[in-house]
Automatic annotation (TrEMBL):
Belongs to the aldehyde dehydrogenase family. It comes from Pseudomonas rhizosphaerae. Residues 23-487 form the Aldehyde dehydrogenase domain. Keywords: NAD, Oxidoreductase. The keyword Oxidoreductase applies. Signal peptide: none annotated. PANTHER family: MALONATE-SEMIALDEHYDE DEHYDROGENASE, METHYLMALONATE-SEMIALDEHYDE DEHYDROGENASE [ACYLATING], MITOCHONDRIAL. Its EC number is 1.2.1.27. GO terms for biological process: L-valine catabolic process; thymine catabolic process. The keyword Zinc does not apply. InterPro entries: Ald_DH/histidinol_DH (IPR016161), Ald_DH_C (IPR016163), Ald_DH_CS_CYS (IPR016160), Ald_DH_N (IPR016162), Aldehyde_DH_dom (IPR015590), MeMal-semiAld_DH (IPR010061). This is methylmalonate-semialdehyde dehydrogenase (CoA acylating).
């Protein structure tokens, strides 16, 4: 392969590939601009890697696996200890890049990095996470034990909305388990991801253990079908996640796909009014609604439907501006295309008869006239057949539906195909207990609007929001990134009694 080696990948020019520990310039003819969504300024160009480059990255990972899998657990863990310290040290710098390329506020960008950092901290506990089991004397003189062994080269494909957290869900846990990794970040905002990868190299991740390729569908498909890749982690939209799950599964890989969502917040009239309204507005409009766990539907039970004017008043106070400006609550959406999609869906809500309480279309932000801004948007009177209910909008749009009872609310949520997150707001322990038992959604918040578990647990979205049994991080991902090998062993003393030949199935 014809490559030129670069010392530093994150200079704001052409983004490099990471192959075998070297930052290399792609030879591709296909490039895409990385654009600041508040200004349309081009920050850099990202290559769509060629097939040869993807093959070179996988081959480097395959070679590195031979030694990395034998590297002692303690040595792998100490790299993670170093990495967490480096991320902490560089968090503010990376947050600037992240905010510029993604649009979210600086504080939220720091939060994005912090939630990923927590996974790296958890990877430092690998010594007690990657343990097998042992049972002594399961039959006469026979012991059985399990080994949790790394599986080989793993790949990760990540979305635009958390360019720090989601790559950090993947590669630290995969490599600390003894695997090697090929990461394919979002082509819309790969710069902050690349900065985190640079820190991983600085922390001591050896050449070939972590590789980065850039691109879109072709690169993703190449990873999903490559014979040397054993497992694929995907986070992104439902359509692409389903494609990745099917394609990689068909090619014999272990796959986990975390996908789209429609997250409901059920509000009972006994809930703490101010806390609930604050929570709804923060969870619906924070990060411009571009979180897979954003609250996008409020289900108002009984008299809580009277809270709509307060909800509107609070949402109206949010400041829409570039993420880099102090005091900003709602930044731009990622692209012109996303802007058109979100405003088109708002149009559809009006056409289909929902009441537009607050209209964020066409919002003007002085100094950022070219930005992809949508202001907080609130609909009431929504029904479940409207597109604003059936589709994931992924913008700062909150819709409200009204029902009479908690049972009605549970039935409504359970009839929705997605199962990422749900919230209940109430002061009643009995209602909360009934809700957590009967609701068919993988992550439940009780008076918590965005119930993303900390890394000692796992991310457990369900139904239409997830394919594959095991979620990212926590104990589940250690299972995902390892193969259990069960050993049944018997040892003979020199003076052991000769058992003779046994042709039956049972052990003695
Ligand atoms: P996306 O599906 O468009 O892109 C995700 C990745 O897939 C990117 O790396 C992209 O390059 C690649 N890709 C895009 N089109 C492809 C195609 N046709 N074939 C193969 N690969 C392709 O998602 P996005 O817009 O970047 O992210 C937003 C989506 O991600 C939302 O639906 C959101 O709910 C979801 N998300 C889910 C979670 C979760 O944990 N469930 C977390 C974050 C985001």
């Amino acid at each position: 392969m014809n490559v030129s080696v670069q010392p530093n990948a994150s200079k704001l020019d052409d983004v490099k590939l990471l192959i075998d520990g070297q930052w290399v310039a792609s030879t591709t003819q296909e490039w895409r601009d990385i654009v600041n969504p508040a200004t349309q300024q081009v920050l850099a160009r990202v290559p769509f890697a060629t097939t040869d480059e993807v093959d070179a990255a996988v081959a480097a990972a395959q070679r590195a696996f031979k030694t990395w899998r034998l590297t002692p657990l303690g040595a792998r863990m100490r790299i993670m200890l170093k990495l967490q310290a480096l991320i902490r040290e560089h968090s503010k710098r990376i947050a600037q890049t992240l905010s510029a390329e993604q649009g979210k506020t600086i504080a939220d960008a720091e939060g994005d990095i912090f939630r990923g950092l927590e996974v790296v901290e958890h990877a430092c506990s690998i010594g007690s996470l990657q343990m097998g089991e042992f049972a002594e004397n399961v039959a006469g003189g026979v012991d059985t034990y399990t080994l949790r062994q790394p599986i080989g080269v793993c790949a990760g494909i990540t979305p635009f909305n958390f360019p720090a957290m989601i790559p950090l869900w993947m590669f630290p846990m995969a490599i600390v388990c003894g695997n090697t990794f090929v990461l394919k970040p979002s082509e819309q905002d790969p710069l902050s991801t690349v900065q985190l990868v640079e820190l991983a190299l600085e922390a001591g991740v050896p050449p070939g253990v972590l590789n980065v390729v850039h691109g879109g569908k072709e690169v993703v498909d190449a990873l999903c079908t490559h014979t040397d890749i054993k497992a694929v982690s995907f986070v992104g939209s439902t359509a692409v996640g389903t494609h990745v799950y099917d394609l990689a599964g068909k090619h014999g890989k272990r796959v986990q796909s975390m996908m789209g969502a429609k997250n409901h917040a059920v509000v009972l009239p006994d809930a703490n009014r101010e806390q609930t309204l604050n929570a709804l507005v923060g969870a619906a409009f924070g990060a411009a609604g571009q979180r897979c766990m954003a609250t996008s539907v409020a289900v108002l039970v009984g008299k809580s439907r009277e809270w709509i004017p307060d909800l509107k008043a609070l949402a109206q106070k949010l400041k829409v501006n570039a993420g880099s400006e102090p005091g900003t609550d709602v930044g731009p959406v990622i692209s012109r295309r996303a802007l058109e999609r979100v405003t088109g869906l708002i149009d559809s809500g009006v056409q289909e008869g929902a009441k537009l309480e607050l209209d964020g279309r066409g919002v003007q932000v002085p100094g950022y006239e070219q930005g992809n801004f949508v202001g907080p948007t609130l609909f009431s009177g929504v029904t479940t057949d409207m597109q604003i209910y059936t589709q994931e909008i992924f913008g700062p749009v909150l819709i409200t539906l009204e029902v009479d009872t908690l049972d009605d609310a549970i039935a409504l949520v359970n009839a929705n195909p997605f199962g990422n997150g749900v919230g209940l707001f109430t002061q009643s322990g009995a209602a909360a207990r009934k809700f957590q038992s009967e609701i068919d959604v993988g992550q439940v918040g009780i008076n918590i609007p965005i119930p993303v578990p900390v890394p000692s647990f796992s991310f457990t979205g369900s139904r239409g929001s997830k394919l594959g049994d095991l979620g990212p991080y926590g104990k589940q991902v250690v299972q995902f990134y390892t193969q259990t090998k069960t050993v049944t062993a018997r040892w003979f003393d020199d003076d052991s009694v000769n058992d003779g030949v046994n042709t039956t199935i049972n052990l003695k």
